[in-house]
Design brief:
The chain is mostly helical and 108 residues long. It is 82% helix and 0% strand. The chain contains 4 helices and no strands. The protein is elongated. The two termini are 31 Å apart.
C-alpha cells in the first residue's frame, strides 16, 4: 500500500473504517444471536428489547444466522484481525509518504 498524499490516505481510512464498522457489527450480531438462542433454549426469559433485537437481526440476516457454524464466526474474526493489520501498515505507509513529501518541499 502506498499513498501519494494525505488526502489519499484519509479517503482510504474513511472507507476502511466503514468496512471495519460493518464487519464488527456483523460479528456482534452473530454473537448476540447465538447467545440469545442458547439462553432461550436454556429456559431464560429475555426482555422485550432483547427479543426485538434478535428478531431484527434474524429478519435482516435469516439465511446467515439460521445456521451459523463456529467456523463462519472464526472466519469473520480472522478477517477483522487482517483488517487491523492492514490499518497498522497503512499508518506506516502514511508516515513514509509524509517524510517523502517533506523532503521534496523547499524550506522557506
Amino acid at each position: 500500500m502506498k499513498f501519494n498524499n494525505k488526502q489519499e490516505y484519509l479517503t482510504w481510512r474513511s472507507e476502511w473504517r466503514a468496512n471495519y464498522r460493518a464487519l464488527s457489527q456483523q460479528i456482534r450480531d452473530i454473537k448476540f444471536a447465538r447467545w440469545y438462542a442458547d439462553s432461550v433454549r436454556g429456559g431464560v426469559k429475555m426482555s422485550e428489547a432483547q427479543e426485538a433485537r434478535f428478531k431484527a437481526i434474524h429478519k435482516a440476516n435469516a439465511t446467515t444466522y439460521g445456521f451459523c457454524p463456529s467456523s463462519f464466526l472464526a472466519n469473520l474474526r480472522v478477517k477483522a484481525t487482517a483488517m487491523l493489520e492492514e490499518r497498522k501498515a497503512s499508518k506506516i505507509a502514511c508516515q513514509e509518504c509524509y517524510l517523502r513529501n517533506k523532503q521534496v518541499q523547499p524550506v522557506s
